[in-house]
Each structure stands twice: as structure tokens, then as C-alpha cells.
Amino acid sequence: MAASISYHEESRQSQVDNLQRQWLHEHKERMEKLALDLAALTARLDSFGDEVTDRLESEEYLALIRKGFRIWDQADTDQKRGYIGKLLANAGGTKLCDDDIIRLFLDWLERYHEAHFKVIREVFQNPGSTRHDIWEQVHGEFPPDNSPEADLFRMLIDDLSRGRIIRQHREVNYQGQ
């Protein structure tokens, strides 16, 4: 009886130890990715020269960095982490747009999946594209209308339309009518 209890306790402790090892391994990999991304960000910012020092030390930019790396930590893919790193580097080295726009982009990166960004890229590159055109460029042959793939694609378009990221193309005159 005592041997059975001891065996179960050892088995349970072994499971706990295994989970801890997996957790440590996961966080080690995450820290390595963070170190690589920070090195790339630093290298990119160094390439801008000394004229950006004031920007990099400003509280506004540091707030963007904090927000960006909170989102980076929650990102599911390396591609999304890369987008965040590039956005933060460009925001530090250039002043092409206001920090509010950078925060909006960070919010989009947090909210949307890479599949959404493929659709956005296609609409941007080919204004006036139909859903069918977008699908063909992203995936190839259009699926049957009653398929799960078609449902997912409709959901992507709906998300982007409701989020006011994309809209239906309409011909307008000079006054916007």
C-alpha cells in the first residue's frame, strides 16, 4: 500500500517536473527571440544616426515601445512579431506619421490575424478588387460557396469591413460624390 502511494506521488512529481521543463524551454525560446528582435531593432535604429537620439529618448516613443512589446509578447507568429519590430524601428527613425497612427497600427496588429493582412495587402495593391479577385490572388481557385473556406473568407472580409479597414470601391467625382 505504501509502495503504491509512493509510486503515485513520484509519478505526479515527475509530471510536474516535466511541465516545468517544458515551461522553461518555452520561455527560453521566447527570450532568445526577444533578444534577436531587440538586436535587429537596435541595429536598425543605429543606422539612422545621431539625429534620432531625442526621439528615441522621448517619453512618447518609449510609450510606443512598451505597448509594442506587450503586443509582441502576445503575438502568435514570428511574422507578426516582425511586423511589430519594423513598425517600432521606423517610428523611432522617421517621423512620417503621428504617434497616434503608430498606436492604431499596433492595435491592428494585436487585433487582426495574418490572414487579414493578406487581404489588406491585396486590396491595397489592387484597388477595386472583388472578393473573388482577392481570393484568387491569395489562395488560387475560389472554393465552393458552401465550404468552410468560403465562410472563413467571408468572415475575414466582414471583420475588415466592420473595422473600417477596407470598404467597397466606388467611383467618385472630384468632390467625392
Care to describe what's here?
The structure is a single chain. The protein has 177 residues and is mostly helical. 74% of the residues lie in helices and 0% in strands. The longest helix is centred in the first third of the chain and has 45 residues, at 2-46. The chain starts with a helix and ends in a 15-residue tail after the last helix. The mean pLDDT is 84.
Count of DSSP helices?
Answer: 8
Order of helices and strands: HHHHHHHH
| Separation of the first and last Cα atoms | 85 Å
Q: Work out the number of β strands.
A: 0
Q: Which regions are unreliable across 5 or more consecutive residues at pLDDT < 50?
A: none
Question: What would you call the structural class?
Answer: mainly alpha
Rg, rounded, reads 23 Å
Q: Estimate percent helicity.
A: over 70%
Strand content is under 5%
The largest pleated sheet is described as:
none
Shape: flat
What does the average pLDDT come to? 84
Please outline the helices and strands.
Layout: H1 2-46, H2 53-57, H3 59-74, H4 78-93, H5 99-111, H6 114-125, H7 131-139, H8 148-162
Helix pairs in contact: 1-4, 3-4, 3-5, 4-5, 6-7, 6-8
